[in-house]
């Protein structure tokens, strides 16, 4: 798809500087941009590279000017880039209809605009909303409810009674609604506690590949509206994640933990069970959170501590070898003084 610079500036609510009639045929980083393409620059160094490139226009959010390029100035170049990309690169289209290899229960309700790919299985009372897509190899157990414009990539599995809102995307091989890890010790053996709850995923959620979200023991596990979850994340039973959170790769949540809104949990962190993380909490990478974190808190480390405190501890640990060396020198000097005094 192509747009004139003027059309793009209007779409992005930006200021056009230069020839608005120039046609833009794509978008690429400065070192790869070809003639007729748009590129972007967030700082002076990037702008210099963009200005030297073959690109026809540059998307900027600073006071940059060019003698050779069209400039589209916006409030935030990275946000404008995210808005511009779908204008040039249309999403993959899936024709409505059901592949002949799909196995669908008679009681399932399938909107006629939905797409069901090869080897999908839809159990009793499954409901699939308008324009939703099952790419292939998807298994939806009994009672699953999916809203409109949902997209399940290949081999996503939904256990029974999973509820998914509108515009939810779940990437390949993720499993939603598997049993929570619930056992009690009974006469020397681990007895399974039946996991009878559900998973509820609200609108505009995106879930990465190979992620596992367990069903609640009795009540639901809940993923709030607009939350984005990376690959290889595990969310245990009865966890509640608020709205617009960012959960990065290889994070694990133990059971019954609750997150507020706009929480960020960085990669390879672990959150213990029955904790509460307030609104706008930030958890640094590789952290082990063992205690509640109040609204706006920033924590880091194992066990996680307020980030400033944790950074001071890290710096102190880095200085420890030199400190030990100095202590040994002082011990040697004291020994010499003692030897002189005793002599």
Which terms would index this structure?
single chain; 343 residues; alpha/beta; Udp-n-acetylmuramoylalanyl-d-glutamate--2,6- Diaminopimelate Ligase, Chain: A, domain 1; UDP N-Acetylglucosamine Acyltransferase, domain 1; twelve-stranded mixed beta sheet; ten-stranded parallel beta sheet; 4 helices; 19% helix; 29% strand
Question: How are the SSEs placed, and which strands pair?
Answer:
Elements: E1 3-4, H1 5-12, E2 15-17, E3 23-24, E4 26-27, E5 37-41, H2 44-52, E6 57-60, E7 70-73, H3 77-88, E8 97-98, E9 103-104, E10 109-110, E11 115-116, E12 121-122, E13 127-128, E14 133-134, E15 139-140, E16 145-146, E17 151-152, E18 157-158, E19 163-164, E20 169-170, E21 175-178, E22 183-186, E23 189-192, E24 199-201, E25 206-207, E26 212-214, E27 221-223, E28 228-229, E29 234-235, E30 240-241, E31 246-247, E32 252-253, E33 258-259, E34 264-265, E35 270-271, E36 276-277, E37 282-283, E38 288-289, E39 298-300, E40 305-306, H4 307-342
Parallel strand pairs: 4-5, 5-6, 6-7, 8-11, 9-12, 10-13, 11-14, 12-15, 13-16, 14-17, 15-18, 16-19, 17-20, 18-21, 19-24, 20-25, 21-26, 24-27, 25-28, 26-29, 27-30, 28-31, 29-32, 31-34, 32-35, 33-36, 34-37, 35-38, 37-39
Antiparallel strand pairs: 1-3, 2-7, 22-23, 39-40
């Amino acid at each position: 798809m192509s747009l004139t610079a003027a059309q793009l500036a209007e779409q992005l609510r930006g200021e056009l500087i230069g020839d608005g009639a120039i046609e833009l045929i794509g978008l690429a980083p400065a070192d790869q941009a070809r003639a007729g393409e748009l590129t972007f620059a967030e700082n002076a160094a990037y702008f210099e590279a963009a200005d030297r490139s073959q690109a026809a226009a540059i998307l900027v959010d600073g006071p940059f000017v060019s003698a050779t390029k069209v400039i589209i100035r916006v409030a935030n170049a990275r946000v404008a880039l995210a808005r511009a990309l779908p204008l040039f690169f249309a999403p993959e289209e899936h024709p409505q209809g059901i592949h002949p290899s799909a196995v669908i229960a008679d009681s399932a309700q399938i909107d006629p605009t939905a797409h069901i790919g090869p080897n999908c299985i839809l159990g009793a009372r499954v409901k699939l909303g308008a324009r939703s897509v099952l790419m292939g190899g998807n298994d939806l157990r009994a009672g699953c409810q999916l809203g409109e414009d949902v997209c399940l990539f290949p081999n996503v599995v939904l256990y029974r009674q999973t509820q998914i809102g509108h515009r939810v995307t779940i990437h390949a091989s993720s499993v939603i609604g598997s049993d929570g890890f619930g056992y009690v010790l009974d006469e020397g053996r681990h007895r399974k506690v039946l996991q009878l709850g559900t998973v509820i995923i609200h609108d505009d959620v995106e879930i990465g590949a190979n992620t596992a979200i367990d069903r609640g023991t009795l009540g639901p596990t809940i993923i709030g509206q607009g939350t984005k979850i990376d690959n290889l994340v595990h969310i245990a039973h009865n966890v509640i994640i608020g709205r617009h959170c960012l959960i990065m790769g290889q994070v694990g949540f133990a059971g019954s933990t609750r997150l507020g809104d706009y929480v960020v949990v960085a990669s390879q962190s672990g959150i213990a069970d029955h904790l509460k993380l307030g609104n706008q909490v930030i958890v640094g990478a590789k952290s082990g959170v063992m205690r509640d974190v109040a609204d706006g808190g920033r924590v880091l480390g194992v066990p996680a501590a307020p980030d400033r405190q944790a950074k001071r501890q890290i710096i102190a640990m880095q200085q420890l070898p030199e400190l030990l060396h100095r202590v040994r020198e002082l011990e040697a000097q004291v020994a010499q003084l003692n030897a002189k005094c005793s002599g």
